[in-house]
Amino acid sequence: GFPRTLGQAEALDRICELDLVISLNIPFETLKDRLSARWVHPASGRVYNMDFNPPHVQGIDDLTGEPLVQREDDKPEAVAARLRKYKDAAKPVIELYKSRGILHSFSGTETNKIWPYVYTLLSSKIPPLLSDEEN
Known about the structure:
The chain is of the alpha+beta class. It has helices spanning 6-15, 28-36, 76-99, 111-125, and strands at 21-25, 38-40, 47-49, 103-107. The strands form 2 sheets. It has a two-stranded parallel sheet with strand order 1-4. The chain has a two-stranded antiparallel ribbon with strand order 2-3. The relative contact order is 0.17. GO terms for molecular function: AMP kinase activity; ATP binding. Pfam families: ADK (PF00406), ADK_lid (PF05191).
C-alpha cells in the first residue's frame, strides 16, 4: 500500500487531495503465510504461491522449466520482521486518515469476501463509466 509512512503521506498531500483511503486489515499470520509461500521465476518475474497458485511441478517455472527462487525478504523470519516494521510505520498514517474522516477499513482473510464491500464503497464514490452505446 501507499503511503506507508507519515513522510510519504505528507508528500502525497503536497500533490493531491485525498477524499478516500482504504485500509485492508489482514491478520498477521495470514500475511506471513501468504508471503512466505511466494516463489518467483527470476528471469521473467512470474510469481507463484505454493498455497493457491502453485507451479505444475514444485520448484519449477511452468513455462521455462527453470528453477524458482524464494526472495530473501519472503522467507518467514524476514516476512515477520517486515510486517512488524510496516505496522509501526503505518500506524501514524492510519491515524492521520482516520482523523480526517476519509479512512475506510475492511477486515478479513479472503479477497472474494472483502472485495464486494470495497466495490460497494468505490461504486458509491465513483460514478460508473458509460459505454459507447449508452452515450
